[in-house]
Amino acid sequence: MSRGQPVRTLFFGSGAFAVPILEALHQGKQTRVVGGVTAPDRPSGRRAELAPTPVALCARALGLPLVQPERVRAASAIDEIAALEPELGVLADYGQIIPKGALELPRHGILNVHPSLLPRHRGATPIQATIAAGDPQAGVTIMLMDEGLDTGPIVSQETWVLEGNEIAPELEAEAARRGAELLSRSLEGWLDGTIRPVDQAPLLATLTRPLRRDDARLDWSKAAYELERLVRANEPWPGSFIETSQGRLGIITASVAASAPGDIPGQIVRLGDRPALATADGRLVLEAVQLAGRRAMSGDDFLRGKPGIIGSSVAPGP
Predict the structure, then answer these.
(1) Helices H, strands E: what count in the chain?
(2) Based on the domain organization, do 242 and 173 belong to the same domain?
(3) What dihedral angle (degrees, nearest 10) is formed by the CA atoms of 24, 25, 29, 31?
(4) H or E element in which residue 12 lies
(5) Could you tell me which of 121, 177, 185 has the C-alpha nearest to residue 151?
(6) Whole-number percent of the chain with pLDDT over 90
(7) Which of 103, 118, 193, 318 would you label with 310, given CA atoms 20 to 30 Å apart?
(8) Is 127 inside any structural domain?
(9) d(C-alpha 88, C-alpha 33), whole Å
(10) Domain that includes residue 99, residue range
(11) Beta strand pairing status for 247-257 and 241-244?
(12) Within 13 Å, how many C-alpha atoms sit on residue 258's CB side?
């Protein structure tokens, strides 16, 4: 690669995770971003006004042309992509599988910045899966895309140790920052051919799925440590809640304590001045909560206002 000739680069992305990566590409000396491919503007809010994706907002602020196909597999979408004459593609948090016709357009291929240590946590929700699984470390992977779902060969990876108290937005922001830096460090070697991709080990692969609204309901038949991880993984959406005698109670933050003699799984118990949910293994201490339609409050403030909740039963999980 001639250092005087930045590579024409097309960026694919939609969510907030992708924004720091687009910004790094735009600022980099090895690449010239010629456009962005992102999801169409969607109705949002009570008025259902059209709202652009975070990547669309960023691309417009940078003065980049946008392609916003409903289906990137459509022939018209591939024609629009081809018209931008990309030599390299970079994808992060886009939301659609890129078809073969688009994958073959850039001579340097399309690199995907994925926030997990592939082949672990392929798919839509690697950040949430990392937290929910209690992984001791997180990672980010640069891979060469193929037609599969996060199955392409690995270009580079970075890992870091987790403290065990991360919530999903914090881990996503950290992974985006590290992913942007890793991409910048990897580009020269990728473009000049000194980095050779390594095939993933399929037997080590795990697959994540998109989160659903039903995933917010906590199941007390699980261990308290599992539920505490879910509370952190489900932040900010779909959130976490239990159905109590006082109505639906959102769980904003929680901690774990040991079970006590007489605990009945599914019952609200007292731990000092805080409420806790007795589970199949341990107590989930409700540190911050929110009743439907009410403001968020600390667990002890909630218990002072609703002391009758102690001893009541929580509906079983889904």
Answers:
(1) 8, 17
(2) no
(3) 170
(4) strand 7-13
(5) 121
(6) 93
(7) 318
(8) no
(9) 9
(10) 7-112+142-152+166-195
(11) antiparallel
(12) 2
Per-residue pLDDT at 318:
78
Q: How many Cβ atoms are within 10 Å of 82's Cβ, its own excluded?
A: 13
> Residue 1 pLDDT more than 60?
no
What confidence score (pLDDT) does residue 43 get?
A: 86
What are residue 107's DSSP bridge partners? none
Rounded to an integer, what distance in angstroms lies between the CA atom of residue 299 and that of residue 169?
Answer: 23
Question: Which tokens belong to 135?
Answer: 């992984």
Burial of 201 (0-12, 13-18, 19+ CB in 10 A): exposed
Do 225 and 97 fall into the same domain? no
Do both 33 and 100 map to the same domain?
A: yes
Report how many domains make up the chain. Answer: 2
- The one-letter code for the residue type at 102 is A
Is 171 found in the same domain as 303? no
Residue appearing with tokens 């994706």? 53
**Spatial separation of the C-alpha atoms in residues 300 and 108, rounded to whole Å:** 57
Radius of gyration of the chain (CA): 23
Tokens of 241: 């809640």
pLDDT digits (tens, 9 = 90+) for 165-220: 999 999 999 999 999 999 999 999 999 999 999 999 999 999 999 999 999 999 99
Buried b (16+ CB within 10 A) or exposed e, 13-27: bbbbbbbbbbbbbbe
User: What is the tens place of the pLDDT at every residue in 150-175?
Assistant: 999 999 999 999 999 999 999 999 99
Instruction: Examine the domain organization and report whether 23 and 171 are in the same domain.
Output: yes
pTM: 0.95
Same-domain status, 95 and 15: yes
Q: Is residue 161 part of a domain?
A: no
> What tens digit of pLDDT does each residue of 79-122 get?
999 999 999 999 999 999 999 999 999 999 999 999 999 999 99
Instruction: Count CA within 13 A, CB hemisphere, residue 22.
Output: 31
Domain presence at residue 106:
yes
| CB distance 254 to 287 below 8 Å | yes
CA dihedral 30, 35, 40, 44 (to 10 degrees): 60
